[in-house]
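ok new one. same drill as before - structure tokens go in, u give me an amino acid for every spot. 1221 of them this time. try not to just spam alanines like last time pls lmao
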């Protein structure tokens, strides 16, 4: 194939326009321990420290590279492409320890990858001439150095080691097919042919030890895991528990073998410098053991929780028992007798209450008798690579259930579902479909597994159905094809393909995208012919189908840079457009390769099926009507023709026209060409802020590596996005500083250099601290023995070795800094990690920066789960494979919301779906915040800088959507408070929800003008609506307290508030004191709790002694009360000091007055005489309020039946009003 230059057009040489610099790499744990360190390594200028760390720690070959090399001449191959081997003569002159080195220059790595691909491609005729081969090499090295693209991790690990360095090793049982003849052969060298494929699908037969059986699968998996690859298998062929065996016994079932395979995978983690073993376990929804499979990880997570909490309880209580034996005042044997040793008796009782086994309690006493002073009981933690997790099963695989349309329709229709035996195909058991569905959704909610794979949709888009069904996928679910096949992946960094300046700035560079797709389709095709495979079957099928997996990364960053919210119609349309363009360009190249080298061997038998799939891809690019699609149960989401930018839409449509036309003439070289891979590690290598199709996890992340160590990852796109939105440089600097912090203690409001020098810190130690702050997630990570030095900590700061060795030791707190001091310093140095609340930032721009999770400690916004589903639906119609993506859900998401997401994924024609509810795992390797520690006594969640990454969620934040109103109950509790301010009487009436929280207020003014009273009434309605729509009362209090206008001054009639700057100031002081426990806004200390009950009336003595002194009885009438309950639950009173008073049960006293009343006397009667026959006014007020009235008497009829009517009161007995209406 003839190739032309694009990225090296001006400078036709390797690494055109790329400058290199010397850098160092150091990866540490939060406690300061060094995991990896390298100095004087050379990388392209401008790479971030994270990218440098990835290159140095994971991808450099660290040993075994010969220090002296020589070229090996080869006929028909240009000299610059000759492979290298150790120069034995030159090496003999060196000492043994100097003969092998490691890679230290990124150009070595780029050269061995691009050179190896070019070498194999040239040898097998993929280039029309040497010039095209040189273009291929130069373009690839330049793209790798410029972070425009990256292949999957196994390419970096394995490709080119033999070609560039002559590294050899004994064969590991791999196979390959001769590229010319197709003949399958065994490899005789472990390195001559690399294993560059990341993704495998392995089959398993229902056979214990035979070839292709269960135990053989573990061997094949081991070959994959050793070289950094991953595999998936559908285990549905294995018979269920209790099914008969040929020898007459009964099968132990599917789960017993899954546990064995899981432990085997857990033992192979590639030395810790590559990723963990990656494995997918899939089971069909009709398998007899499906219920046990669904519950598997839920139960294992519970075991981890039990191990962690149980070990901590045992360690604590057993040592308390031991200590009680030695600390007792009694002597001799009496110390060990709980009947005589009170402390021991209490310790034993506490241990029994904590369910500590009695034998262990007695063992502790026995050890105490023998003189033991401490019991070393192993305490486990929830770290994902801890002993607790390695003890249980199911932790080394992703689990998925394969469901079909028939099952999902049964769920919708509440039908039944048959579980089928594997040995004879008969029904094992029939279960309600919804019951099985509920198990799936609950398990996904509880522990993020299982995911779902939609079998019907997958197989309707299958390009080679004549050769079998698609049963499984790779570990991340993006590669889906026949069993015993493989796929190698690469991903384009989309932000490197943006038009920089001029017309169309910010748009995708269509020509560059097409060129990159062409080059990397060739790279991946060459990788198929040069590779070796872990089994004969995979070698044969890889040769026959030649599946590839080009994808992209950084789509979410592209949206941010353009100022486009991820959850928007435009973003969805652009996603569909760029995915359609990429896949079409790859298929066009595949058809061109087929023209020169022939189609893949499986194409003739699947020609019509594959062309049908191609036509459906093309129809989605034109958003064809649903009825035009061929052979699909669910029509896909096409590109919105009106929303997608026209340049991108037209380019995608033209490319699909070409891809289909060329395919019809020449066929295709590859059965599949594109997927969307997770791009976790290679995304970091390319300095991508977002992976694959994902939005950003959070603006600032903290990633834990499999081999140990942590990265602080900061979204680098925020400044450019702010500039795109029109902010000035000064405003951008302020917003960025608010988000990611100053990175220094200089200028810190707390824990400053001055403060630390008072504690004994020297300039030298402070310099070491400053050097670590920029990469710290919290400042507590920096203050440790490894940064400060043991001598300084011990001799100057006075800490003991025991303190420094304690993982929970907080050095800053030990130095005397308060939690508030540490948090304020942390916000200054490390930032708030969110743009919410940042200076200058407009609220309408917040959606641009929304992430998959709430950002930092203070963030509240996140992308809705259904937005993830819509984005996947936009890309899926244009992919050969599927999408590796996690749908992130907040911690307070419900099981029903999980079910809704899964059902929506099916109806959007997705092939697979996996979700993660925040906190559903006891440990998560990627965190957006650090642990929050709850203090029991205060009852408040206080932030801590303890250097521990989140291991479990200890805080639940309820997020109410602004568009959703929380209605008040028809009958509600509350209270009325009267006060006088500057001679003006003010009445505050509150209404509460059932949980005691404030939902509405009414403000009454006595003898004020109609305009002012109406204005206050409207103000009260506005505040009430805000409260009902979720605005926190704290926000209103902060906004209105200290508002100043007349009337103001002294407050009469309120027990705790004695002064105010305005009526508004008084109102919100009153609400803050009673509902928020804000005693700092009151002027008098806490009064009696009874005075804060909703029926408290205050001091009535003065009113009773004066106001009724001269009243007389003018008439009496007989009242027959209706049937009233003798008791009623009083509404709960307001919060005091943040605590809810317990509800009281009071009786309603009802006086029986059904007897005839005596005639009124002719003379005047004093009130004291009348009071004996009628209830007191205070009693009538109380009963009226209990009945829902305001408690005021009607001026016309005297009844206590007044209700609120706007800003006035109206009597429901006679209709009279208080005057203003």
């Amino acid at each position: 194939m003839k190739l032309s230059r694009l990225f090296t057009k001006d400078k036709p040489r390797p690494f055109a326009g790329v400058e290199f610099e010397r850098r160092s790499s150091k990866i540490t744990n939060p406690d300061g321990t060094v995991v990896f360190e390298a100095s004087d390594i050379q990388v392209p200028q401008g790479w971030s420290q994270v990218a440098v760390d990835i290159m140095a720690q994971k991808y450099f070959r660290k040993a075994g590279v010969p220090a002296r090399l020589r070229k090996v001449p080869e006929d028909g191959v240009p000299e610059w492409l000759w492979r290298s081997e150790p120069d034995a003569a030159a090496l003999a002159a060196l000492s043994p320890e100097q003969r092998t080195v490691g890679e230290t220059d990124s150009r070595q790595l780029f050269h061995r990858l691009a050179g190896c691909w070019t070498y194999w491609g040239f040898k097998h005729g993929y280039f029309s001439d040497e010039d095209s081969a040189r273009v291929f090499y130069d373009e690839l090295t330049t793209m790798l150095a410029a972070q425009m693209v990256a292949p999957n991790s196994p390419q970096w690990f394995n490709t080119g080691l033999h070609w560039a360095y002559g590294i050899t090793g004994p064969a590991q049982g791999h196979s390959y097919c001769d590229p010319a003849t197709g003949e399958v052969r065994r490899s005789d060298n472990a390195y001559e042919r690399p294993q560059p494929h990341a993704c495998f699908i392995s089959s398993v037969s229902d056979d214990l030890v035979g070839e292709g059986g269960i135990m053989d699968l573990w061997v094949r998996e081991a070959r994959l895991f050793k070289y950094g690859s991953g595999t998936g298998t559908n285990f549905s062929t294995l018979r269920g528990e209790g099914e008969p065996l040929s020898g007459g016994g009964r099968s132990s079932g599917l789960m017993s073998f899954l546990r064995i395979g899981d432990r085997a995978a857990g033992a192979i983690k590639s030395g810790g410098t590559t990723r963990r073993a990656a494995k997918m376990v899939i089971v069909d929804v009709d398998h007899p053991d499906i219920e046990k499979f669904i519950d598997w990880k839920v139960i294992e997570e519970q075991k981890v929780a039990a191990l962690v909490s149980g070990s901590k309880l045992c360690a604590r209580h057993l040592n308390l028992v031991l200590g009680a034996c030695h600390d007792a005042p009694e002597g001799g044997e009496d110390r060990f007798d709980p009947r005589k040793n009170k402390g021991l008796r209490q310790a034993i009782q506490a241990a029994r209450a904590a369910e500590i086994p009695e034998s262990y309690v007695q063992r502790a006493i026995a050890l105490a008798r023998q003189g033991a002073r401490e019991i070393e009981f192993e305490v486990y933690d929830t770290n994902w690579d801890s002993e607790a997790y390695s003890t249980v099963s199911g932790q080394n695989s992703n689990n998925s259930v394969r469901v079909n349309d028939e099952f999902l329709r049964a769920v919708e229709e509440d039908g039944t579902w048959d579980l089928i035996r594997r040995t004879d195909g008969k029904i094992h058991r029939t279960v309600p479909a919804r019951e099985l569905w509920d198990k799936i959704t609950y398990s996904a909610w509880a522990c993020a597994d299982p995911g779902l794979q939609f079998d019907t949709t997958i197989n309707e888009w299958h390009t080679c159905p004549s050769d079998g069904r698609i049963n499984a996928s790779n570990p991340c679910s993006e590669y889906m094809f026949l069993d015993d096949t493989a796929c190698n992946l690469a991903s384009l960094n989309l932000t490197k393909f943006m038009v920089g300046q001029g017309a169309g700035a910010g748009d995708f560079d269509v020509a560059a995208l097409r060129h990159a797709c062409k080059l990397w389709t060739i790279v991946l095709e060459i990788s198929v012919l040069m590779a070796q495979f872990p089994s004969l079957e995979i070698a044969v099928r890889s040769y026959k189908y030649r599946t590839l997996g080009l994808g992209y990364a950084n789509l979410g960053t592209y949206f941010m840079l353009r100022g486009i919210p991820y959850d928007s119609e435009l973003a969805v349309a652009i996603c569909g457009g760029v995915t359609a363009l990429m896949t079409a360009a790859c298929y066009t190249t595949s058809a061109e390769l087929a023209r020169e080298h022939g189609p893949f061997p499986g194409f003739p038998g699947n020609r019509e099926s594959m062309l049908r799939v191609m036509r459906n891809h093309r129809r989605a690019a034109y958003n064809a009507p649903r009825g035009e699609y061929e052979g699909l149960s669910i029509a896909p989401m096409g590109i919105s023709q009106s929303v997608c930018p026209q340049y991108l839409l037209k380019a995608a449509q033209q490319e699909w026209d070409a891809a289909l036309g060329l395919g019809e003439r020449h066929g295709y070289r590859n059965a599949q060409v594109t997927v969307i891979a997770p791009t976790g590690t290679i995304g970091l290598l390319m300095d991508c802020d977002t992976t694959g199709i994902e939005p950003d996890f959070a603006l600032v992340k903290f990633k834990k590596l499999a081999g140990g160590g942590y990265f602080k990852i900061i979204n680098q796109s925020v400044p450019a996005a702010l500039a795109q939105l029109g902010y000035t440089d000064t405003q951008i600097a302020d917003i960025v500083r608010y988000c990611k912090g100053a990175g220094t203690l200089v200028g810190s409001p707390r824990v400053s250099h001055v403060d630390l020098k008072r504690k004994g810190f020297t300039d030298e130690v402070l310099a070491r601290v400053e050097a670590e702050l920029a990469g710290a997630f919290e400042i507590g990570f920096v203050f440790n023995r490894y940064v400060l030095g043991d001598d300084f900590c011990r001799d100057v700061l006075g800490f003991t070795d025991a303190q420094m060795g304690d993982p929970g030791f907080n050095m800053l707190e030990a130095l005397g800094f308060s939690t508030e001091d540490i948090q304020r310093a942390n916000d200054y140095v490390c930032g708030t990690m969110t743009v919410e609340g940042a200076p200058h930032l407009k609220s309408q721009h917040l959606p641009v920066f929304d992430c998959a999770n709430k950002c930092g400690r203070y963030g509240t916004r996140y992308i809705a789960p259904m937005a993830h589903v819509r984005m996947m639906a936009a890309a899926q119609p244009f992919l050969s494979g599927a999408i590796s993506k996690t749908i992130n859900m907040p911690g307070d998401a419900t099981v029903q919301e999980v079910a809704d997401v899964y059902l929506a994924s099916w109806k959007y024609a997705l092939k697979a779906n996996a979700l993660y509810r925040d906190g559903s795992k006891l440990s998560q390797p990627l965190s957006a915040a650090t642990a929050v520690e709850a203090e029991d006594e205060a009852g408040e969640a206080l932030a801590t800088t303890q250097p521990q990454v989140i291991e479990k969620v200890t805080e639940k934040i309820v997020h109410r959507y602004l568009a959703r109103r929380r209605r008040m109950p028809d009958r509600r509790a509350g209270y009325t408070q009267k006060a006088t301010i500057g001679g003006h009487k003010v009445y505050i009436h509150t209404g509460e929800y059932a949980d005691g929280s404030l939902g509405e207020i009414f403000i009454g003014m006595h003898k004020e003008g109609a305009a002012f009273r109406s204005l206050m009434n409207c103000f009260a309605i506005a505040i009430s609506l805000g409260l009902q729509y979720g605005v926190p009362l704290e926000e209103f209090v902060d906004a209105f307290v200290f508002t100043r206008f007349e009337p103001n001054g002294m407050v009469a009639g309120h027990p705790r508030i004695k002064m105010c700057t305005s009526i508004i100031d008084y109102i919100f002081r009153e609400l803050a004191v009673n509902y928020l426990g804000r005693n700092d806004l009151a002027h008098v200390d806490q009064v009696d709790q009874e005075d804060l009950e909703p029926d408290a009336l205050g001091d009535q003595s003065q009113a009773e002694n004066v106001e009724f002194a001269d009243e007389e009885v003018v008439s009496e009438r007989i009242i027959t009360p209706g049937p009233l309950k003798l008791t009623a639950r009083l509404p709960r009173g307001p919060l005091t000091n943040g605590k809810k008073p317990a509800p009281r049960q009071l009786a309603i006293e009802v006086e029986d007055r059904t007897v005839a009343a005596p005639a009124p006397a002719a003379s005047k009667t004093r009130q004291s005489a009348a009071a004996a026959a009628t209830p007191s006014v205070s009693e009538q007020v109380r009963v009226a309020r209990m009945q829902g009235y305001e408690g005021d008497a009607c001026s016309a009829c005297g009844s206590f039946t007044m209700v609120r009517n706007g800003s006035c009161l109206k009597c429901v007995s006679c209709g009279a009003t208080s005057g203003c209406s």
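The chain has 39 helices and 36 strands. and btw The radius of gyration is 37 Å.
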